[in-house]
Amino acid sequence: MGKCFSSARASTPTPMAKEGSTVPSVIFKTRVRINSKDENPFDWKDVTSDELFKGKRCVLFALPGAFTPTCSSFQLPGYEKAYKEMKSLGIDEVYCLSVNDAFVMRQWGLKQGLEEDKTLGANGFKKVKLLPDGAAAFTRGMGMSCVWDTERGFGERSWRYSCVLNDMKVEKIFIEGGGITPNSAADPYEVTDEKTMLAYLKSASK
């Protein structure tokens, strides 16, 4: 099991994840579908990193925020379109992570036109799964916490990165700009797109 990270902000930031790093063990506060006629037929469910990633090979891409331009216009749609091809290349699941809560992530997915999984107990959408890291525990554990306060007023969010997680270990990681830039005015999107990820998965499958 990976190191456990709480939502309390650490005094010493965790080093940025690299290939071979262990995925942080955190609890994601998710919402799952229940049998209810309520307009919001969901209940809370805690899901751990181990449940998502242990014994599996997954693609995870993280971005600064739901509903933001680059994330909405390019990154999420790109991975959604490439979902089946990634699965055919030995990937068990594809996750999109953001420092937003479960309510925001669901509404963003609906706005993006993602097909919702309406079976009882389902946690989100049929293709790319949206992971709410509302307290930034996973983001901090990956060493990817970035603060935009004077710039944009986002507060603490995730720096943009994408990775392949293989049985709780980082197999491959792509980090925009090569590292974190607090209050970055630029929004780099050069190495975390679905095409770069597909190229890696194809090369790794040879």
Provide a brief overview of the structure.
The chain has 206 residues and is an alpha/beta fold. 25% of the residues lie in helices and 25% in strands.
Number of strands: 9
- How far the N terminus sits from the C terminus, by CA atoms, comes to 30 Å
Fraction in helix: 10-25%
Low-pLDDT residue spans: 1-10
Briefly note the structural class of the backbone.
alpha/beta
Strand order of the largest sheet: 5-4-3-8-9
Return the string of H and E elements: EEHEHEHEHEEEEH
User: Would you tell me the overall average pLDDT?
Assistant: 90
Q: Biggest sheet, open or closed, and with what strands and sense?
A: 5 strands, mixed
Shape: globular
Number of helices: 5
Q: What is the gyration radius calculated from CA atoms?
A: 16 Å
Sum up the structure in keywords:
206 residues; alpha/beta; five-stranded mixed beta sheet; two-stranded antiparallel sheet; 5 helices; 25% helix; globular; disordered N terminus
Explain what the structure shows:
There is one protein chain. Helices cover 25% and strands 25% of the residues. The longest helix has 20 residues, at 69-88. Mean pLDDT is 90; it is low at 1-10. The protein is α/β, with parallel strands linked by helices and 206 residues long. It contains 5 helices and 9 strands. Strands 5-4-3-8-9 form a 5-stranded mixed sheet. It has a two-stranded antiparallel ribbon with strand order 1-2. Helix 2 (69-88) links the parallel strand 3 and strand 4.
